[in-house]
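Write out the 3D structure for:
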Amino acid sequence: MIQNSMKADGAYEIFPGFVLAPTGGKVIYVHSSGAAALDQLPQGMPGNPDGFFQSVQAALNTCRLGRGDRIVCLQGHVESISTANFMAAIGTTPTCSDVEITGVGNGSNRPTFTWTTATSSLLINTPNIKFRNMRFFLAGAHAAGSALTVAAPITITADGVEITDCEIAYGFQANRIVGIGITTTAAATRFAFDRNDVYAETLAVPTTTFLRLTGTDFFRMDSTRIVGPGSTTAIGPVQQLTTAMLKANIKNSIIQNTLAASTISFTAIAGSTGSVDKCAFGVLAAGNGITAASGLQVTASYVAVAGAAGTLATG
């Protein structure tokens, strides 16, 4: 008979006479309140000095290359992104890769990360990093405060990065905004952005856009809603720039530019390939919603001016 036991560094299979420790990743728990949160750990998974930290920054220091380590942020965890190149400044980076950072909780109890200075930035420059079930406040705490423009909250320069099931606020006052919320480079292939709820107040006009895609071949976006202003009527909250993306897969999503007189919500560029299927593009003036002749195959997708019936969008 085989028995299983769980420890911070993964599962152990116990056989008569010997123990096999598989190469699967270890599990590391995080909560900003420290030891007071230990009682939130599930039964049978006690915290220990090697498996519990007060910040993701500290937990990442213990992660390894290509082992599939997992960081679990417990309910109510809060953390500030207060420096430039957060994560990239960690001593073990770039040897740390293939890490999943998962939040536990629902609604406002999910782990919350807040960008607090103009130069605060999260640099994801190692492959296969995954963020799941988080709240990201890219333009400071979601409350009235001093003016703040966070220039580049998130930059992705590695393959296989994923942001999924997250709530992302990229502006909520005219003077609490972002320059570009998420920026990808041509090296950010296979970036997945699924089931996210993204928003900004209409007055919180970004300097440029929320999501700027440069290259980003095999980009995937599924069941995501992005509602907020772009910087102009023709630059929506999603913008391609410089290098066309190839083999994109965008489906079941809503992108709405809430800027007055907007005609575009997805500013695409020529030379792109891939598909846009069953999506909705919201604008506030007559337009196509997505830049025409981008090369993307647009099927079963509609553009609608607020309060009006939608019409078929073309690629």
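The first helix runs from residue 56 to 60.
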